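dude i think i finally got it to work??
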Amino acid sequence: MIQHSKPFFDLHVFCCTNERAENHSRGSCARSNSVQLRDYMKSQVKKLKLEQSIRINASGCLDRCEDG
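look at this
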């Protein structure tokens, strides 16, 4: 039996950086500065020395556009 140690991270934050066509009806997270948001979150995690417990992840569309 394989024993698993503590997970690498306590928390994963997913930031959609999906880019759709310019005229797409749902818009585009990337065109709404999500890449800059992801980079800011990563820099804050590093600044607060939380990079061992929090991972900021880029993701594709999570189908939550209208909820965000």
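The first helix runs from residue 34 to 47.
im so relieved honestly
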